[in-house]
Design goal:
- This protein folds into two domains: 75 residues; 140 residues, Jelly Rolls, CATH 2.60.120.
- It has a four-stranded antiparallel β-sheet with strand order 1-8-3-6.
- The longest helix is centred in the C-terminal third of the chain and has 29 residues.
- Helix 7 packs across helix 8.
- It has eight helices and eight strands; from the N terminus they run αααααββββββαββαα.
Length: 230
């Protein structure tokens, strides 16, 4: 049971009250880093209060609060370093917003770090039907036609993958993909990705999840088009 003094007649009691208030704020914050920061401030206030009673310092209370401060400082430092490493460039942020708006930024950064940027002119071929592709493409700007037996059956644009099924299944491309206009893509090379899988075991899961999100979006779009035709 939490005891809150009815009146704050002394400085230590004021500090304890501030500590309770900061703890309450911490528990209503959704951002984990700010939660830890407010927890540190709350425990610091209570630790100082534990040193000031008239009957002498409450060393057990002081030690417990300082231990919690140290733990939260360590976790906060880890969170800050992870967020710095996962900062996205302007282009990366645009692509994240288009392709993976709900995916954690740290995962997106790890995914994008395994790829390189490429620019393609109008009419360049990204995938050839029947051939085994060594690359996976994610479009930032531009559009590309999808062709089957030399017949255009659709197109893809910003935030969509090209070659995702072949990349996952290791089978030949089921259709050709040719740029409709100048197109900028993020490109993953299979050989590079497979080498990274050995060092980062979560990367395969992240990439598969990203491709799954794209496929789900394409299926939904195709179903909507089918309903409109009917």
């Amino acid at each position: 049971m939490i005891f809150v003094p009815e009146s704050f007649s002394s400085f230590p009691e004021i500090l304890v009250g501030i500590g309770f208030l900061l703890t309450l704020i911490a528990f209503v914050i959704s951002d984990i880093l700010w939660l830890r920061i407010f927890t540190i401030l709350a425990k610091l206030s209570m630790a100082i209060a534990a040193l000031l009673p008239e009957n002498g310092p409450l060393w057990l209370s002081f030690s417990g609060n300082m231990l919690l401060i140290a733990i939260n400082l360590a976790h906060s430092s880890i969170l800050i370093m992870e967020r710095r490493r996962s900062s996205l460039s302007e282009e990366e942020q645009q692509l994240k917003d288009k392709a993976f708006p709900s995916m954690d930024r740290t995962f997106v950064k790890r995914l994008f770090s395994a790829a390189t940027w490429h620019d393609y002119e109008k009419g360049q071929t990204l995938l050839i039907e029947g051939e085994y592709p060594e690359k996976l493409f994610l479009i930032l700007e531009g559009k590309a036609f999808i062709s089957l037996v030399h017949k255009r059956i659709g197109e893809i644009g910003p935030g969509q993958f090209a070659g995702e099924m072949s990349f996952l299944t290791r089978q030949s491309a089921g259709a050709s993909v040719v740029t409709r206009k100048p197109t900028r893509c993020l490109v993953w090379k299979r050989s590079v990705v497979e080498e990274l899988y050995k060092k980062d075991h979560d990367l395969q899961m992240i990439l598969t999840a990203a491709i799954g999100m794209d496929l789900a979006g394409k299926i939904l779009l195709q179903n909507q088009r089918t309903l409109l035709v009917k």
